Amino acid sequence: MHVALILWSVFAAWLWGDWKHWKHYHTTMLFIALSSAMYDVLVNDGSYYLWRYVGNFYFSEEMASLLYTCVAFPATALLFLSNFPEDKWKQVLHICKYVAIYVILEIIGLYFGTISHAHSWNMWWSTVFNLVMFSVLRLHHTRPLIAYAVSLVVATYLMIHFHVSLWDSE
Fold it and tell me: What is the pLDDT of residues 43-70, one digit of tens each?
């Protein structure tokens, strides 16, 4: 499933993304990659995680995470931002569409065992997180400093709520 999703994200970004103006979205593409990498460093230490990719015979959990971080998430940001509508109501629907896509893919991943949850993380938390994530991606594109502040508050809240230690749990 990881291979299919990563290849699909590349294909979808190539087909529907605004590659002509990719530099306009570049900083937000890097922002989502950095955010994913921060999660991997702070939370996904092997013995304590909230959610993680489950490796398979193609590649390890770490390789899956790296490919999502460096390929799938930036491709998603390009698609999301380059197709962002002007009308306010359509913007809400656009965000909801991407949240729904991510939630459905995660449910499928849980079903097939390519994603796992732990430490009270569940689909409700994933749905809320995705809603915040796509909203912050748009905010980062228009007002990056505010997005950094919001991200810091959200990350701090999640780390406190889920008892994430800044030290290895081993």
Answer: 866 678 899 988 877 788 888 889 999 9
Q: Identify the helix (H) or strand (E) that includes residue 51.
A: strand 51-53
The answer to whether 28 and 141 have CB atoms below 8 angstroms apart is yes
Helix, strand, coil percentages in the chain from 3-state DSSP, rounded to 5? 75, 5, 25
Spatial distance between the Cα atoms of 157 and 152, rounded to a whole number of angstroms: 8
What is the Cα–Cα distance from 78 to 135, expressed in whole angstroms?
A: 14
Q: Are strands 115-117 and 51-53 parallel, antiparallel or unpaired?
A: antiparallel
Q: Name 150's Cβ contacts closer than 8 Å, sequence gap at least 6.
A: 136, 139
Angle at 94 between CA 105 and CA 27, to 5 degrees: 85
8 A C-beta contact, residue 6 and residue 63: no
> Tens of pLDDT along 102-121?
999 999 999 999 999 999 99
Residues paired with residue 51 on neighbouring β-strands, in sequence order? 117
The number of beta carbons lying within 10 Å of the beta carbon of residue 96 is 13
- The amino acid at 131: L
Asked if residue 123 lies in contact with residue 103, where contact means CB atoms within 8 angstroms, the answer is yes
